[in-house]
# Entry
Amino acid sequence: MTEPVLSVRDLQVEFPTRRGNLRAIDGVSFDIAQGEVLGVVGESGAGKSITGSAIVGLLDPPGRICGGEIRLRGERIDTLAGEAMRRVRGKRIGMIFQDPLTSLNPLYTIGRQLTETIITHLPMSMQQARDRAVQLLEEVGIPGAASRIEAYPHQFSGGMRQRVVIALALAAEPELVIADEPTTALDVSVQAQIIAVLKRLCDERGVAVMLITHDMGVIAETADRVAVMYSGRLAEIGPVREVVKRPHHPYTSGLMGSIPTIEGRAERLVQISGSMPRLDAIPDGCAFHPRCERAFARCHVERPVPESVERSQVACWLYDEETRTLKAAP
Amino acid sequence: MTERDLVKVADLSRTFDVSRPWLNRVIERREKEFLKAVQNVSFSISKGETFALVGESGSGKSTVAKMVVGLLAASGGNIVIDGVDLGDKKHRARFGALRKRIQMIFQDPFASLNPRWRVGRIIAEPIWAFEKGLSQDGVDGRVGELLSLVGLDPRDAGKFPHEFSGGQRQRICIARALASKPDFIVCDEPTSALDVSVQAQILNLMRDLQDEFGLTYLFISHNLAVVRHMAKRIGVMYLGSLVEVASPRDLFATPKHPYTRMLLDAVPDLEMTGRERMPVLGEIPNPIHPPSGCAFHPRCPFANDRCRAEKPGIHEAAGILTACHAVEEGRI
Amino acid sequence: MSVQETPLPPVAAAPPGTERGSLVARILDSDIYYSFRKSKVTMAAGAITLVYFLGALLAPWIAPHNPYDLATLNILDSYLPPAWLEGGDPRYLLGTDDQGRDVVSAILYGSRLSLAIGFAGVAFAAVLGIGLGLLSGYAGGLTDTIIMRVADVQLTFPAILIALLIDGTVRGLFGNLSREDTAFWVLTFSIGLSFWVQYARTVRSSTLVEKNKEYVQAARLIGISPIVIMVRHVLPNVMGPVLVIATINLALAIITEATLSFLGVGIPSTQPSLGTLIRIGQDFLFSGEWWITIFPGAALAILVLAVNLLGDWLRDALNPKLR
# Structure
């Protein structure tokens, strides 16, 4: 088995404030293989965006990585200093952010932004870089790429801008692309187009993708595997079909049940009472236990260790060997 | 208009003047530009029912919502609520009584509450505005009741909005909306800014309240799944016009208008049924310079010459209203 | 369609337990007070300003002499140097001026006047500026255009010119009133008219933002009148930057008053403010009686510096991006 493109082990991120250290990410581990799309899903405050920022070294100060390791094809990148990290960030990791309006510099033509990125990271002449830029724009589906290359970001619609951002992310031929809520600010119809473009391009190039989103629908469409985050921890990680259709962790099944679908199966939506705990008030034991209907004594005191269930890893005591033998059925 | 119609909107239109300033126009030799945000929208809502308006950006659904509650003046058409024509000067006197019965819940739970006011005061504002005779204790009691009704603690009245999460703030907004004992509530994307599990709580709450108080909702959203869950009848809007109005079952099972079909195909497949889908073509055009004839024709696989020239009118068949030549002609 | 604002890290949120505590408790525990304690310079500036305030407030009781009471002045005591120099008198710690006024007392009473005018001027500017800014931002359209153009024109007039204008007008209209009576109001008006634009502009831009927020729409929905909305809903939310501007303006106002007095259009020399004292002393600077001008000058400089530092700190403390 080839080495994974991205390997995160026991990542810990904290924010020191004058009221104490807030642990935003507490022991998250996952791999992304070449050509695979890993969806990282969670609600606000779960820590999924922070995970993405930590990987590319763009954590907002005073946030910092205080434990664990991040490896890109075996090499550690979390310990890299400024300049070295900058090179990695541009060349080997591409980023797509939520808001296409602010991802592109409004003062430069998209052609210039693309060629600049290409030249910085790849050994090419200006003309070659331009040709490549036009080619990229065609690949992401911008009509009339050869002339549109001279246009400014504000002359594109939201969906077109996001395509440009995808082109920009792929320009330097990265090994990994981190997309943070790439479709949230777009209309539903445009969203479908963007997901399709992203998926197709990354498939063709064998690029590993970390897709961060709160939208389970996008995950179901795009991802191969999905990691569900809660309170800075991983609740469940497994193949997308399994997590979406047969979720194991009570939080995941609550989450899936609360999403209305156009098939309209439920009369009343499943409701998880309460809300995700604030960073300075994370409960002992399992972070989800105060809201979990199936919590028992152990959940209150001990933090669950990930267990293999079918083809997923689930951090829940219900799936622990002991519990499974003690209880008739979870 | 039937007896049970609480709200009836007819030929509602709204045009914005988005021209450049006069001096610029003279120097650059440009024409005046107008944005037809809403064009001849008509629908009615029965008492106790939820009518949803669904559409993407530029569809005009939020503009319709603002006109119905009176925050924005209509450029054309009229709005009649419980027999009172909102645009008619003669009805001015009945306006005051009507205001109390219409309320609105907004999209952004962070901007919907005055950050400097305590929650109790925020909820009490409509009470003070409409019921002049109550004592402070009476008002406090009502505020406490309302907070309990939406699932919060009456003691929360002393707190400030920033102490609450998004979902809780939306509950406070709902409590404020209920304070004047309205009959009709316009909900403008009330759960779009909320997490999915919180959305479920709020939607369930809204339905429970509707059952308990016989409320009528005009529900605006861009999310088809949410709308399916909440509404009795759904209106689909595109670039300022209604293109289809149907019940959820009809709309989702047999969508008629090509735009509705495209929209449904674009919704991510959460059930992972692997269903066949039509790829989405093109993007929403600029509303200042809309296409000729039917606004959807550049993106429509069924468009013909008539579509390019003539704007379709509303055509009814089996309770479903559609604005499409192809449907009317029986082509699709 | 935005994702909900993430609730972490809760830098600005109140810690659990103090949400509904008393105002004092909330202030003491707030981030602002914390940043105040952290900076030695700010604490020093705060202390100095406090000393001035107290000195000015309690001047009638703590000043060794009353420099305004002509009966207590002894012309034979004039031109006395500071106490530690030869020829000095321990009763007059920093010396006396040409009329036998004790410099220490003159500074105390002078600061009183300077601070009073500074506050009054800033208050007038603030009220005028906030009022016009709110109106301009909320009403929009022609009202907005008119007020903003008036503001633009206002900025072309320096404070001194305005003071001269008003002074002349007042003299023409109320020639029978003495300088003492009118000086305070002339100065207050001049300073107010010079500085209101800053407030108006800031409040106007904040108002433009707040006016479109849903809580204002919710109030309009239930039929609350625009004036009530402006004052009750919008005003509390646009006051933030006003405090910072006011503090920095205070320093500027005091200097302006000093300048005007120095130039002779401010407070007359019978009841001098710091600026007037400096002017009076200037005549004697080169004839050797330096203390008459230097000490009031130093007092003014220290006061203005302290207030400025406080304003700087406040601006940084209230800026969410820097926290």
Confidence is low (pLDDT under 50) at residues 1-20 of chain C. The domain at 103-322 of chain C is CATH 1.10.3720.10 (MetI-like fold). Chain C touches chain B through 25 residues (CB under 8 Å). Residues 103-139 of chain C form the longest helix (37 residues).
